[in-house]
């Protein structure tokens, strides 16, 4: 039994409540019978886009590396995630997807974050962003995608590429979340992609064409098309706080497609994300975006305090983040006008729903007991996976 001053249930925040766990599931949510800790219990976070953390790059991860990633993810409240690989030759990508699939089906070890499947971000994209331009493929290889489809949870694709619409229809029909991104498509092309089965837009505002009043492009479609959820990085570097708030107002209404907070984190200490070569920020204390102050926050391991600085290429191009999921929630609430309930649902319920994981993402009777406890400052204190305490590993309930 877990007690908290606030518990985020399907219907909203329940004060002074207890969550009863039984056989890895949530058996009951009820008013507390005695005093409860001053904490918040929310569904475990679901991160749709993780390229790496610290010294471990997902694209080249080996058996010991997955345990390192497990611990780093649990420390930020993540209980389900999508290892993400970026543009590379198809043979390399196929090998990386195979390693991810092996990690997904590991049987040994204690409680750890579940891998929902891989997120393939490229090479079927039009705007490279931080991806090496030479790695992009300018025509979609549908037979290859169908070959690896069972290993994918998310596919980011540019809908303007030849063969993209056929791929969107085929992959979405196989349960893959097709997301539009790294694209200079028109709003009309985005609408056609949504009609073909696309359900999301990848890292809103980044690696996409500009929003123009007479040519809204992918950005305009992302904010206005109710068939498309949006993922976004709320580190205050990738998007201005005002635009983050706008995205929540446009997409986060009851019954709307929703906003999914993602970290898009990279292995900055390893200086790589697949074929992307990363540089440490030259001036990590510089303002994140105009009118947005740099915000101190812990690093992914929580071992020290330093500014939230994104990874970049040598030319200064943004190349992923170092933000954690709990920090993403804090920054959205403190700086972007997002309510705590909205932010927590965007870190858990929205991505779980997109992935079709009906057994998690909400605190309700019969759901999987993947839970995170946050202190009043919205920092992770405890994490449970399938009802078993997973972080801190040695602490008792």
Give Rg in angstroms.
20 Å
Mean pLDDT over the full residue set: 92
Instruction: Name the quaternary structure.
Output: single chain
Shape descriptor: globular
Strand-residue proportion: 15-25%
The structure class reads alpha/beta
Largest sheet: 9 strands, parallel
Tell me the distance between the termini: 9 Å
Q: What is the number of E strands?
A: 22
Low-confidence parts = 296-307
Helical content band = 10-25%
Count of DSSP H/I helices:
10
Question: Would you write up a description of this structure?
Answer:
24% of the residues lie in helices and 25% in strands. Strands 5, 8, 9, 10, 11, 12, 13, 14 and 15 form a nine-stranded parallel sheet that branches. A seven-stranded mixed sheet has the order 3-2-1-4-20-21-22. The chain is of the alpha/beta class and 397 residues long. Residues 296-307 have low confidence and may be disordered. The chain is globular, with a radius of gyration of 20 Å.
What order do the helices and strands come in, and which of them pair?
Blueprint lengths: L1 E8 L2 E11 L2 E7 L8 E4 L1 E6 L1 E2 L2 E2 L5 H12 L3 E9 L3 H15 L9 E2 L2 E4 L20 H7 L3 E6 L6 H9 L4 E4 L6 H10 L3 E2 L15 H8 L4 E4 L8 H11 L7 E3 L10 E2 L2 E2 L18 E3 L6 E3 L17 H11 L4 H8 L1 H6 L16 E4 L5 E6 L2 E4 L6
Parallel strand pairs: 1-4, 5-8, 8-9, 8-10, 10-11, 11-12, 12-13, 13-14, 14-15
Antiparallel strand pairs: 1-2, 2-3, 4-20, 6-7, 16-17, 18-19, 20-21, 21-22
